[in-house]
Amino acid sequence: MAKRLTIYYATYVYDERMHRGILHYGRSRGWRVQLLQPHAWSLVRGMKPDGLISLMEPDDDTTGMTDYVLSLGVPHVDLSYNRPEVEVPRFLPDLEDGGRQAAEHLAMLGVSCLRCVQWGETMADELRMRGFLESAEEGNLPVECLNMRHCKKEPHQSLLNFLKSAPKPVGVFCSVDQYAGRVLDICLDEGWRVPEDVAILGFYNHEIDSALAEISLSSVDIDIEGRGYKAAQALGRMIRGEDVSVEQNLVPIKGIVCRASTTSRMKDDRFVAGAQEYISSNLRKPLTVEELVGAVGMSRAALQRRFKRVLGHGVASEIKAQKMAMAKRMLRQGDETATYISEELGFPDVTQFYRVFKRETGETVGQFRKRSR
């Protein structure tokens, strides 16, 4: 019988979705996957696995686990931005795009401004904010950010003051779902309506945080399980002796998981909610306002008034905004030609797509693709 391989999954922050992704691949290959965590990693001291998948500890918060697993000298794939001097293949979420998608989602709710709550001064926060600020700037929405790292003495009061200072309606983006939960608690204590006054969006889509919240929390899903699977695939190739380049492999963001903390703002008006859903489902056709009015079953003037009241802009602007958001996503993430994208988004020809894209974004298609890459 072939030897059964033992793989260590060594992580300082546990997420069962990552573990599930690793196991999904590993079990198909007969691997034994052992979990190592900071409080119990020493139980395996003296043993040597056949391969290693890690979420390495940050330099300022180490228990010795990372140093130990690095000393084993086995094929190794990592899932973090920590310890950049360690040259191993890394599978990382496209956090910059996650920040962009967060800003786009909140902007579509018709908020007057954006706020961001983050731990701060980490590579992950820097990348998230880069995309978030870029998208907010494109939408001409003012943004302010609170660094919770700087509020260790009075975190609750600092967060309360930060939210009180924001004009309403405001969209609040939180770098982790736990912060989204804190923001929600403050809103409920202060009597602010969620999401009518404060729309709240978290990050990482930890379903337990949403389940425990009084109002379910929308969140950015970064496909944690998919990252685990891809990392295990790469480790399998390394164990077989294949070359795997030492680089950062960006795993695409899965998308926004919409729950009550951002969606009931539209659900309060079923016609606007229905119109938005119809637009999202028909982005790949030359959609007109007249067609949308017919699908919703309301006069054009009445639907325009409802869009203005709920979202702050008209129906045609919403169609263009959704098409441009999809176009930017395709330009950032893929290699499709502008002609292909224009056809996919229902433009009559690529020339009109070029013209609309330049007018709405201030950049040519080529300029945007080059900058976003």
Automatic annotation (TrEMBL):
<dbReference type="InterPro" id="IPR028082">
    <property type="entry name" value="Peripla_BP_I"/>
</dbReference>
<dbReference type="InterPro" id="IPR046335">
    <property type="entry name" value="LacI/GalR-like_sensor"/>
</dbReference>
<dbReference type="InterPro" id="IPR018060">
    <property type="entry name" value="HTH_AraC"/>
</dbReference>
<feature type="domain" description="HTH araC/xylS-type">
    <location>
        <begin position="273"/>
        <end position="371"/>
    </location>
</feature>
<keyword id="KW-0805">Transcription regulation</keyword>
<dbReference type="InterPro" id="IPR009057">
    <property type="entry name" value="Homeodomain-like_sf"/>
</dbReference>
<dbReference type="Pfam" id="PF12833">
    <property type="entry name" value="HTH_18"/>
</dbReference>
<keyword id="KW-0804">Transcription</keyword>
<dbReference type="Pfam" id="PF13377">
    <property type="entry name" value="Peripla_BP_3"/>
</dbReference>
<keyword id="KW-0238">DNA-binding</keyword>
<protein>
    <recommendedName>
        <fullName>HTH araC/xylS-type domain-containing protein</fullName>
    </recommendedName>
</protein>
